[in-house]
Amino acid sequence: MTNLPQIDPQFLRHLSPDTREEIARQLDEEPGPVFWFSLALVVLLATFVVAYPIVMVLR
Questions:
Q1: Is the pLDDT of residue 3 over 70?
Q2: Closest among 17, 39, 21 to 29, alpha carbons compared
Q3: Residue 41: what pLDDT?
Q4: What is the rounded CA–CA span in Å between residue 55 and residue 59?
Q5: Which of 20, 35, 42, 53 could potentially form a cystine with 31 if both were Cys, beta carbons 3.0 to 4.6 Å apart?
Q6: Among candidates 48, 3, 58, which has minimal Cα distance to 28?
Q7: How many CA atoms within 13 Å lie on the side-chain side of 9?
Q8: Does residue 51 sit in helix, strand or coil?
Q9: What backbone torsions phi and psi does residue 2 show, to the nearest 5 degrees?
Q10: Sequence-distant (≥ 6) Cβ neighbours of residue 15 within 8 angstroms
Q11: Measured distance CA(44)–CA(28) in Å, rounded
Q12: Could you list the residue ranges that cross the membrane (predicted)?
């Protein structure tokens, strides 16, 4: 629990208890396969977006 995002208590006060429990449950969970797959796609897309103009200039 070292890298969890900090949530403002003023924000939490306006939420229902069920919503607060859901937020706490999601923050305690490990990232699932969908998260890692999405992260991999974003990294590949970012690499392509950065590398493509460089390759075109060096040609």
A1: no
A2: 21
A3: 97
A4: 6
A5: 35
A6: 3
A7: 0
A8: helix
A9: -95, -35
A10: 23
A11: 28
A12: 34-58
* Confidence check: pLDDT of 1 > 60: no
Alpha-carbon distance of 45 to 16, in angstroms, equals 38
Percentage of residues in the chain having pLDDT higher than 90: 39
Q: Name the residue type at position 51.
A: A
Rounded to whole angstroms, the Cα distance separating 59 from 36 reads 34
pTM of the predicted protein model = 0.51
Q: Read off the tokens for 2.
A: 């070292």
| Distance between CA atoms of residues 6 and 37, nearest Å | 25
For the segment 20-47, what is each residue's pLDDT rounded down to a tens digit?
Answer: 888 888 878 888 899 899 999 999 999 9
One-letter amino acid for residue 20 of the chain: R
